[in-house]
Specification:
One of its GO terms (biological process) is spermidine biosynthetic process. This is Spermidine synthase. Keywords: Membrane, Transmembrane, Transmembrane helix. InterPro entries: SAM-dependent_MTases_sf (IPR029063), Spermi_synthase (IPR001045). The protein is of the alpha/beta class and about 650 residues long. The protein folds into three domains: about 190 residues, Growth Hormone, Chain: A (Up-down Bundle); about 200 residues, Rossmann fold (3-Layer(aba) Sandwich), CATH 3.40.50; about 200 residues, Growth Hormone, Chain: A. Helices cover about 55% and strands about 10% of the residues. The protein contains 22 helices and 13 strands. It has a seven-stranded mixed beta sheet with strand order 9-8-7-10-11-13-12, with helices on both faces. It has a four-stranded antiparallel beta sheet with strand order 3-4-5-6, sandwiched between helices. Helix 1 runs antiparallel to helix 6 and helix 16 packs across helix 21. It is globular.
């Protein structure tokens, strides 16, 4: 295969394989639902090592399909799932699990991801010396965009993992040229068949569906003649589709919002966020709702509810379904409601590409509850309920509602598992409390806000489990780089490129989380943001190739000016704009520093003496950037801009004098 199409195919495969690994391992290892960037960091290490290995070995990277097959078999036979049947929510995987413990399985996943991705990266890196620097980078970006597009299309089609395995098998078959038929069959064909076969067994298992977010499994049964459908996602018990009458009889929390809301006697319009399989919708209809907007982020959960819920609530003409993020719906709609319900909206997973942002994180901030208040009719009420498990969490949410609505909410705690219902009328007269809430206990954390939307984090710190894991990741990365690439002095001339990689990862994280707030935490928004970042990078490369750009000191000044602009434009102001204008302003604010940063990188990269080592150093910087991303737990997402700015200043200080005139 000629070098240019080979580079595009290898780059597309590399990014596709990275996304597939993140998605599939997180579906079977419950710990990875809360460490989504764990596999990402392993991928960065592998990609960096693959580039650094170029020139040090001429052997084909047959190890990649072999390790992938071993990883698939290990995860297939030793999945990690939650083994408790009672309801609850997970905080940093604190519930007991079945399968290998985190300390045993997570290092295996990290090392395997690095080794698997090192193979395609080595194939990409071998193309770089055959082309001019920026031309090679250009085709690498085109391939990366192709990989994102392929994975996004498969997500849109809800394709099962066997489709990912077939694409991986074809890519290995095309890219790994056989030196002998026996070696090819043993090291490429056989491992690929193992991967496809194992994923086919999982894909076609009874009761398994694949949404863009989860592996969804369901089981239908009956209890005392009552039909029930149990739904689990990524091995975690998640929902039950039960007739409304039985749910109201068995669990009091579902009736309390209608008892506490003064408007419950005339429910013309009801909004349910977290509609899921439809039980909350069925209850609203049974309470006399005339129109229900049912918001659910996962299309497969809605599909299961439409097909199997005993009450068939989604067939009712009074119900309108919206497949989107709940916070985004609140920010876009102009409707007013008599009752707004946040109905157990626990995603049980993180936004891909963000270390600590869950799909529902922006729902539980003070700004979100203010948005809910603004969408209530006179006399309307807001209510939320869940199994909170911690008293401080109940108090924190009640305090958030108090701040947003300007008066104390009704707080009812019922049943086991710290079940609680928090109801706030648009005014104090719009709610009917059974008793006055005593207020938050001493030591209750303040309300979560959009800049730090970490509801389940009690303090302003980084949990020790993260610190230990990140320390081990950095230690393993240093040892692996030394073992594969040799002395670190090879990368010393490219220390500025290393820092560019660190800061760019932080900048990308800030944009992913920012767009999630502005437009929703849906997989579509996430894919568009990642593609947009690559398009901005590609545009920077094309501008650098075709036009005379300002010298690097000027570009650094433009970059820092873009960071200052991003810091000065508040998200609250952007959220107040109409969606089309919001999109334009958000793109300008977010992508100006990204474009400038990549003009800096392209100009510097074009002048390097060793393209593969320089590119590898930049990619390895992304590992440190992924670790520093956890600083957002302490300083918030806006604080990441400050850290990125300081790192860019450091990169400029390390810029060789000969490169300053570029």
């Amino acid at each position: 295969m000629p070098v240019r199409p080979r580079l595009v195919v290898a780059s597309a495969f590399m990014l596709f394989l990275e996304l597939a690994l993140i998605r599939w391992t997180g579906s079977n290892i419950v710990h990875l639902s809360y460490f989504t960037n764990f596999v990402l960091l392993g991928s960065f290490l592998g990609i960096g090592l693959g580039f650094l290995r170029v020139g040090r070995s001429t052997r084909q990277p047959y190890y990649s399909p072999v390790v992938l097959a071993a990883l698939v078999l290990i995860v297939f036979y030793f999945p990690v799932t939650v083994d408790r049947q009672a309801e609850g929510v997970l905080y940093f995987t604190s519930l007991s699990t079945s399968g290998p413990p985190a300390w045993a399985i997570l290092p295996v996943i990290f090392a395997a991801a690095a080794l698997v991705l090192m193979g395609p990266a080595e194939l990409v890196g071998r193309c770089f010396p055959e082309l001019p620097r920026l031309e090679a980078y250009r085709y690498d970006l085109i391939g990366s965009l192709t990989g994102i597009a392929m994975f996004s299309l498969l997500s849109l089609a809800s394709a099962p993992p066997v489709a990912w395995g077939l694409i991986a098998a074809c890519a290995y078959g095309v890219l790994l040229r056989p030196r002998s038929l026996g070696r090819y069959l043993g090291l490429v064909t056989f491992p690929s068949l193992v991967v496809v076969a194992a994923l086919a067994v999982e894909s076609f298992a009874a009761g398994a569906l694949w949404s863009p977010y989860y592996k969804v499994t369901y089981q239908q049964h009956s209890f005392n003649g009552v039909p029930i459908m149990d739904i689990a996602v990524n091995g975690i018990p998640h929902q039950q589709a039960i007739p409304a009458a039985n749910r109201l009889e068995w669990e009091r929390q579902y009736a309390l919002p209608y008892e506490r809301a003064a408007a419950a006697g005339h429910l013309d319009d009801v909004l349910i966020v977290g509609a899921g399989s439809g039980t909350d919708v069925a209850i609203a209809l049974s309470k006399g709702a005339k129109r229900v907007d049912a918001v659910e982020i996962d299309p497969k959960l809605r599909e299961l509810g439409g097909a199997f819920h005993p009450d068939r609530p989604y067939d009712d003409p009074r119900v309108t379904t919206h497949i989107t993020d709940g916070r985004a719906f609140l920010e876009r709609t102009g409707k007013k409601y008599d009752l707004i319900l946040f109905a157990l909206p626990d995603s049980l997973t993180l936004v891909s590409g963000a270390s600590s942002l869950r799909l529902e994180s922006y729902l539980f901030t003070e700004e979100s509850m203010r948005a809910a208040r603004d969408h209530l009719k006179p006399g309307g009420a807001f209510s939320m309920y869940n199994y909170y498990r911690e008293q401080w969490l109940v108090d924190r949410l009640a305090s958030t509602a108090q701040q947003a609505f300007g008066h104390k909410p009704c707080v009812d705690q019922v049943g086991a598992g710290q079940q609680a219902v928090i109801t706030a009328g648009v005014t104090a007269d719009a709610q009917r409390c059974g008793g006055e809430w005593a207020g938050a206990a001493a030591g209750t954390p303040p309300p979560a806000v959009d800049d730090r939307p970490f509801l389940y984090l009690h303090g302003r710190d980084i949990p020790s489990i993260y610190l230990i894991a990140l320390g081990l990741i950095l230690a393993v990365s240093v040892i692996a780089v030394r073992a594969v690439a040799g002395p670190f002095r090879r990368m010393r001339p490219y220390a500025d490129l290393f820092l560019l990689g660190v800061s760019f990862l932080l900048l990308e994280t800030k944009n992913v989380t920012g767009f999630a707030l502005l437009f929703g935490t849906t997989w579509v928004v996430n894919a568009v943001v990642f593609a947009g970042v690559l398009v901005a990078v590609l545009a920077a490369v094309e501008v650098t190739r075709r036009f005379r750009t300002p010298p690097l000191p000027v570009m650094y000044a433009i970059l820092l000016g873009g960071l200052v602009l991003a810091a000065l434009v508040p998200n609250a102001w952007l959220l107040g704009l109409p969606v089309p204008l919001r999109a334009v302003c958000a793109v300008v604010v977010a992508f100006l520093p990204i474009f400038a940063a990549n003009v800096v990188f392209a100009k510097r990269f074009a002048d390097t003496a060793d393209a593969t080592v320089a590119f590898g150093a930049n990619l390895l910087g992304a590992i440190l950037g992924g670790c520093l991303e956890y600083l957002s737990l302490v300083i918030g997402y806006e604080g990441l801009l400050v850290v990125a700015g300081l790192l860019y200043l450091g990169a400029f200080a390390l810029l060789p004098r000969t490169a300053r005139a570029l």
